[in-house]
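Researcher: I'd like a candidate sequence for this fold, 364 residues long. If you have to choose between options at a position, lean toward the conservative one.
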């Protein structure tokens, strides 16, 4: 736990330095690069952090002919093994590529240096961003590709976006859900409709019989019809994850805090421009998925492809209050996310491996 406290403290203090001490945009930009580079170094040398780490180590040494994971993931394993690399090189390559893609996305969404610095801190401290990518390697890569690819929707280059979806699907089938985003981008929903959809999803989702009778059959039908993702659906709906008391077990401190903060962002966004409306719709979609899929932890993870826009939403709102009289309010809000990040890690310590180990053995 001490490692995570030190990490978040360093990031937050350097964030304050960049926001209130540095005057030149170039210096603030260099600080953002330093923080992302520092985070990438931590990403690639980690060992044993979170439960999926050793699962990926085991997969790396399995015969890929008998594995059912996505093709590009298996191909990357075959290439690395043929070149004599160890499993740690898998974490190295994925960590570098994922963080580069997120950095490129951050640069696109935040041309202003201070906004970019805020986004980097949020990327590190929000549980739906960097922290999740170092656990779920395959989905983390898909998230990075699709988050970077969302810019093509705003640029009205849907073919490029669909290509990003295809590439991301080769790392994790679940990202196929993102195919609906161009349609959602075009739809014009008022804020009250978004709130109504969120409320409706939680009403439906908390009725377990409705979830089993409606959501599960649709997912199984689509998986069987397309032949894509059937293994993932079976896994997500297995007894290991599906709980009769899911609504209780899934709404922990971190989940409840994310729901509340997402609603705050949704309520504060003015929705006067395309970017704000897009962020509001993505935030609402993530909340709807959380409400409908509470009975399965893997299915709730689908929300991460859209919950990433919380980073954009927070920065948009902070940008509105960043005058001299309210800078303290903005900093307190950012500090709240950092504290929630530490609180989530503290709670996760009971069921997850959070002790930070170092592995520099990249070659067998």
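Model: Candidate sequence:
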């Amino acid at each position: 736990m001490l490692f995570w406290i030190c990490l978040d403290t360093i990031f937050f203090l350097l964030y304050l330095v960049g926001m209130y001490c540095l005057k030149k945009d170039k210096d603030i930009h260099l600080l953002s690069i330093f923080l992302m580079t520092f985070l990438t170094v931590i990403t690639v040398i980690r060992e044993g952090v979170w439960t999926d780490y050793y699962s990926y180590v085991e997969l790396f040494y399995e015969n890929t002919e008998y594995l059912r994971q996505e093709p590009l993931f298996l191909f990357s394993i075959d290439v690395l093994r043929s070149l004599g690399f160890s499993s740690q090189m898998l974490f190295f390559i994925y960590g570098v590529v994922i963080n580069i893609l997120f950095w490129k996305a951050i640069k696109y969404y935040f041309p202003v240096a201070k906004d970019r610095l805020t986004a980097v801190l949020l990327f590190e401290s929000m549980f739906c961003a960097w922290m999740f990518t170092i656990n779920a390697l395959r989905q983390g890569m898909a998230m990075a590709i699709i988050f970077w690819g969302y810019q093509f929707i705003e640029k009205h280059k849907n073919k490029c976006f669909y290509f990003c979806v295809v590439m991301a699907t080769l790392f994790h089938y679940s990202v196929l859900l993102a195919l609906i985003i161009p349609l959602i981008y075009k739809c014009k929903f008022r804020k009250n409709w978004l709130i109504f959809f969120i409320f409706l999803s939680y009403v439906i989702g908390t009725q377990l019989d409705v979830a089993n009778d409606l959501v599960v059959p649709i997912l199984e039908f689509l998986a069987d019809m397309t032949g894509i993702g059937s293994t993932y659906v079976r896994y997500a709906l297995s007894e290991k994850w599906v709980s009769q008391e899911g609504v209780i077990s899934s709404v922990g401190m971190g989940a409840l805090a994310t729901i509340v903060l997402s609603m705050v962002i949704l309520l504060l966004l003015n929705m006067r421009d395309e970017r704000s409306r897009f962020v509001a719709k993505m935030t609402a979609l993530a909340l709807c998925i959380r409400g409908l899929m509470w009975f399965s932890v893997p299915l709730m993870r689908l929300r991460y492809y859209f919950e990433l826009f919380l980073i954009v939403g927070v920065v948009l709102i902070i940008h509105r209050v960043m005058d001299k009289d309210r800078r303290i309010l903005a900093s307190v809000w950012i500090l709240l996310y950092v504290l929630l990040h530490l609180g989530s890690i503290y709670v996760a310590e009971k069921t997850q491996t959070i002790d930070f180990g170092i592995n520099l053995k990249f070659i067998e």
